[in-house]
Amino acid sequence: MTKPGIVRGLALAMAVFLVAGPAEAGGGKRPVVVELFTSQGCSSCPPADALLGRLADRKDVLAMSLPITYWDMMGWKDTLASEANTHRQKSYSEIMGHGGVYTPQMIVDGVSDIIGSREAAVETAIALREGDMDAVPVLLHATRQEIHVTVGPASNHEGPDATIWMFRILGKATVAIGAGENQGRTVTYRNIVRDMKAIGLWKGPAVSLDLPRQDGMDAPHDALAVVVQQNGYGRIIGAAIIGHPDY
Predict the structure, then answer these.
(1) Share of the chain above pLDDT 90, in %
(2) Which long-range contacts (CB under 8 A, 24 or more apart) does 80-89 make?
(3) How many domains does the chain have?
(4) Span 147-162, mean pLDDT?
(5) Residue 1 forms part of a structural domain
(6) How confident is the model at residue 26 (pLDDT cuts 50, 70, 90)?
(7) Which of 18, 21, 45, 143 is the most buried (most CB within 10 A)?
């Protein structure tokens, strides 16, 4: 019998792991953030997962997959899902005034809610955000001891304060699904959010944060992303992602 949810993905981006010195990202035009709320138990999700995978290869998009838990009651426990991802989706639903949550759902830059398999609609939403880009600089710098995050400044900042989120991301995992609506299918997921944390608040002036690596305590991951988001779950005004060395 195949062990449920066999995950193969830690070999991705080994070149990133082997960097001899510090890794750094950010500074220029920021990527549009696309979040996919998905589940291994949802038969409508694989096309959206495939679309997210294509978006993950683009430089102008920060694409993240956030597997949720509420499909677990349907006969298959998602091997990548977390309650934190579920909470984030429910928070979006409350902010946007929706009556509930669904999968597959894509949220583009915190402002657009789209059925995740509708590629044309997703592309339109991305293009609209690229044409109306907010300019809050985010710089990430990782060494073997710590992660340094700088956000701002932005002299013309208006609007509500913004939460600085950090996401730990696993670049790729392939899962053999043993039950539920996708029983017998093998699905590859990209840029899976394994952990997220609010690390600070941004009000306009520059904010600098030094965070310990703590790799031994975290879920397996091979990249870090920082997202600056108004009202916690509102409009995204800054973002950067970095592949980090694993010592």
Answers:
(1) 72
(2) 80/7, 80/40, 80/173, 80/175, 80/189, 80/192, 80/194, 81/39, 81/40, 82/193, 82/194, 82/195, 84/193, 84/195, 84/196, 85/37, 85/193, 85/196, 88/35, 88/196, 88/233, 89/37
(3) 1
(4) 85
(5) no
(6) low
(7) 45
The per-residue pLDDT for 246 is 54
Burial tier of 24 (Cβ tally within 10 Å: 0-12, 13-18, 19+): middle
- CA 126 to chain centroid, in Å, comes to 15
Name the nearest CA neighbour of 225 among 129, 146, 147, 132: 147
Residue 232 has what pLDDT? 95
pLDDT at 8: 40
pTM over 0.90: no
Residues whose CB falls within 8 Å of the CB of residue 9, separated by 6 or more in sequence, listed in order: 170, 171, 172, 173, 174
Tokens of 76: 């298959």
Mean pLDDT of 220-234: 93
**Whether 94 contacts 107, CB under 8 Å:** no
Per DSSP, the three-state class of 75 is coil
Residue 11, in any domain of the structure: no
In whole angstroms, what is the distance from residue 35 CA to residue 84 CA?
Answer: 14
- pLDDT, tens digit (0-9, with 9 covering 90-100), for 70-107: 999 999 999 999 999 999 999 999 999 998 999 999 99
Structure token digits, residue 162: 């913004």
Residue 75 sits in a domain whose CATH number is: 3.40.30.10
Least Cα distance to 116 among 202, 176, 166, 189 occurs for 189
Tally of CB atoms within 10 A around 171 = 19
In a domain, 21, yes or no: yes
Residue 139 lies inside a defined structural domain of this protein: yes
Q: How many residues does the chain have?
A: 247
